[in-house]
Amino acid sequence: MFPTLEDYVGQTPLVRLQRMANHTQSTVLLKLEGNNPAGSVKDRPALFMLQQAELRGDIKPGDCLIEATSGNTGIALAMAAAIKGYKMKLIMPDNMTEERKASMRAYGAELILVSKDQGMEYARDLAKQMQAEGMGLVLDQFNNSDNPAAHFASTGPEIWQQSQGKVTHFISSMGTTGTIMGVSRYLKQQNPAIQILGLQPTEGSSIPGIRRWPEAYLPGFYEKQRVDQIIDITADQALATMRQLAQQEGIFCGVSSGGAVYAALRLAEQLKDAVIVAIICDRGDRYLSSGIY
């Protein structure tokens, strides 16, 4: 049998920084999640959430699904819904880039926009309200344990295998926190000494894909003991590193990925013989209309 598109979610490359880390005594490795079919790390939980919901009998093709998203999960869910035959309603703040909105619509999703001021918190509340009114089922990436389970099943094992078990530090931006929760659980089982570092924006900074959640909106599966250190970064630090990655390494990515590499480089300068893995969440082409490049 020939493979289908869903067979190509995951197994993304892990590549070494060549120039930007050559002044350090550590190795910085980047997991290129933009190589997934819909272009981001969110392809993994999006497809996994659908697959597991089907196995439980919660959904069947033809059903309508609802999700609040700031972008990448929405695109990934729209792709997964198209593969499997679901209707998809996506609720998103209107300040997200035009590329993101167009990508969701291209996959056949219906897009419901809320204002920037209402933000993701309101989008999440609206999704629950629509479900209560019988308009569809909310997958709820923020509280669905299948989100981190996807990374425990795929991202974590891939990093362990591709780094030949040499990874000493793992760095990830924190949005839903699904990536860092799942990868942390897997890597710590292999070697409890591996350090897990999560990124959040400094107070008042806005970085697409990373959040400082109010306590009431923290993702339900977030367990703070799985993160050894939380690092605050500014938008300027993330943007400058993002541009440097494209110009010096040929790695074209988004702002949150620039933040992860900024933190990885600072860590590499402090350590000797560390093997630091950072997640490159997505590709830079879905941010071009925002002018950040």
TrEMBL record:
Protein name: Cysteine synthase
Pfam families: PALP (PF00291)
InterPro entries: Cys_synth (IPR005856), Cys_Synth/Cystath_Beta-Synth (IPR050214), CysM (IPR005858), P-phosphate_BS (IPR001216), TrpB-like_PALP (IPR001926), TrpB-like_PALP_sf (IPR036052)
Matching CDD domains: CBS_like (cd01561)
Binding of pyridoxal 5'-phosphate, residues: N72, G175, T176, T177, G178, T179, S256
Enzyme Commission number(s): 2.5.1.47
Record organism: Rheinheimera mesophila
Gene encoding the protein: cysM
Modification type N6-(pyridoxal phosphate)lysine: residues: K42
GO annotation terms (biological process): cysteine biosynthetic process from serine
Needed cofactors: pyridoxal 5'-phosphate
